[in-house]
Design a protein that fits this description.
This protein is α+β, with helices and mostly antiparallel strands. The protein has helices at about 1-10, 35-45, 50-60, 65-70, 85-90, 95-105, 110-120, 120-135, 145-155, 160-175, 200-205, 220-230, 265-270, 300-310, 315-325; strands spanning about 25, 60-65, 140-145, 185, 240-245, 260-265, 275, 285-290, 295-300. A five-stranded antiparallel beta sheet has the order 6-8-9-5-7. Strands 1-2 form a two-stranded antiparallel ribbon. The chain is globular and about 65 Å long. The two termini are about 30 Å apart. About 45% of the residues are buried.
Length: about 325
């Protein structure tokens, strides 16, 4: 599952994307760039792509200035990773919870099949899809080729990563018979209802309903998430987290909070933290969500770590947990 870690670097969350209407992509002569010519030669020699095809495609490529701005200059927190306030505004709210219940009812048969096959909890599958693509209704409106060409051939902090993704976009489109220049997704090239970058989509696209694998097919996405959870050690029936209270100021600073390192429950309670519901684990991830006026604390189980292996963000894990809880 190492390839999934490449995807995590981009911290892609579709619901925080802003439409690129202020500065739309503009024409750009990519064929004049030496690194593009080297890329064309490599794709022809190593993967057998026709040189004329590659040149025709790059003649159509545009410079996506908004996408490039996200990955140049000083990294600004929450420009590509959602703050907890953004999660609450766009996802962790009653409207989304209602839509989650409708989605679960509409796709219950597929969800149940996936949950039984992979021994996972269907409510968390719904949570994943709610956060990733608003239950498949929003999969991104950026031209993926423009975005990846921009990031592959203009200096930025993840240029090497995006150049590799551009290569896999060509391979993925050829394998599937897609028109490469027509594909749409996130500002960093993630596609479909589970938002996979091309290298991940190429390797892990999953046919769960028997009609061919597609990253845009909701049933395939349900199966893909269930398979991911299983392969990363999901324990069925174990809640991913529970809310906790703490004494003191509205900002918690007593202990290190992390979704990667567990603390003993004894140490957590000694710091004045109490789980609001029964918590029978002896160790927990102490997770903090930062609100405008205060911090909230959560005790995460091993299943919480599984959630964050798909997207390396505690906010992401808590959002999935809350959607799942709303379905109980």
């Amino acid at each position: 599952m190492k390839l999934f870690k490449l995807f995590l670097l981009t911290a892609l969350i579709p619901f925080i994307l802003t439409a690129n209407e202020d500065r739309p992509p503009i024409s750009y002569n990519y064929l004049s760039k030496t690194n593009v010519q080297h890329f064309i030669a490599m794709m022809h020699k190593r993967y057998g792509f026709d040189r004329n095809y590659l040149k025709r495609v790059f003649k159509q490529a545009k410079l996506d200035r908004d996408t490039l701005a996200r990955y140049t200059g000083k990294f600004k927190k929450n420009t590509t990773v959602g703050s907890w306030e953004r999660f609450k505004l766009h996802v962790v709210n009653e409207t989304t919870f209602k839509e989650a219940r409708v989605f679960k009812k509409q796709h219950y048969k597929t969800l149940n099949k996936a949950a039984r096959m992979y021994k996972v909890d269907e409510d968390y599958i719904v949570g994943f899809l709610g956060v990733e693509s608003h239950f498949g209704t929003y999969t991104g409106d950026y031209n993926i080729f423009d975005a990846l060409a921009t990031l592959a051939f203009h200096p930025n902090r993840m240029q090497k990563f995006f150049k590799n993704e551009l290569k896999h976009l060509f391979l993925f489109a050829r394998e599937k018979g897609y028109i490469l220049t027509k594909l749409e997704g996130s500002f960093a090239g993630a596609m479909g209802c589970v938002q996979q970058v091309p290298s991940i989509a190429e390797k892990f696209n999953f046919d769960f309903d028997g009609d061919g694998a597609s990253v845009w097919d909701i049933e395939d996405c349900i199966g893909s998430i269930a398979k991911f959870m299983h392969q990363n050690g999901w324990q069925k029936g174990l809640a991913a987290a529970t809310p906790a209270s703490y004494k003191g100021s509205k900002r918690f600073k007593k202990l290190r909070t992390s979704h990667k390192h567990m603390l003993s429950l004894h140490a957590i309670k000694k710091a004045g933290i109490k789980p609001l519901y029964p918590f029978r684990q002896q160790h927990a991830y102490l997770v903090k969500t930062h609100n405008a006026t205060h911090d909230d604390l959560w005790l995460g189980t091993k299943n919480f770590r599984v959630l964050t292996r798909y997207n390396n963000s505690a906010n992401y894990g808590v959002a999935i947990y809350l959607i799942a809880q709303a379905l109980k």
